[in-house]
Design brief:
Elements: E1 6-9, H1 16-23, E2 27-30, H2 35-46
Parallel strand pairs: 1-2
C-alpha cells in the first residue's frame, strides 16, 4: 500500500496491524467483536512511545447493535 491508503483489519485483535499502518502514514479501520480485543487495541495505540493519538491523529469508536440472523 501507499501512504494515505486505507488499511482494513477485520479481526484487529490487539491492534498490531493498526499500529503499523499508522506508523507508515496509512489510514486504518479496525474491526473486532471482542470487547477484550478492542480494549487491548486502544491500550496498544495509546501507550506507544509516540502515542499515536497525539498530534492530530484521531480515532472514532463505534459499537454496532447485535443483529439476529436467524430471521
Amino acid at each position: 500500500s501507499n501512504p494515505g491508503s486505507i488499511v482494513l483489519d477485520c479481526f484487529c485483535g490487539s491492534g498490531t496491524t493498526l499500529k503499523s499502518a499508522q506508523q507508515l502514514n496509512r489510514n486504518w479501520i479496525g474491526i473486532d467483536q471482542s470487547e477484550h480485543a478492542i480494549r487491548a487495541t486502544v491500550k496498544k495505540l495509546e501507550n506507544t512511545e509516540e502515542n499515536l493519538f497525539v498530534g492530530g491523529s484521531e480515532y472514532e469508536f463505534l459499537q454496532l447493535a447485535a443483529v439476529n440472523s436467524d430471521k
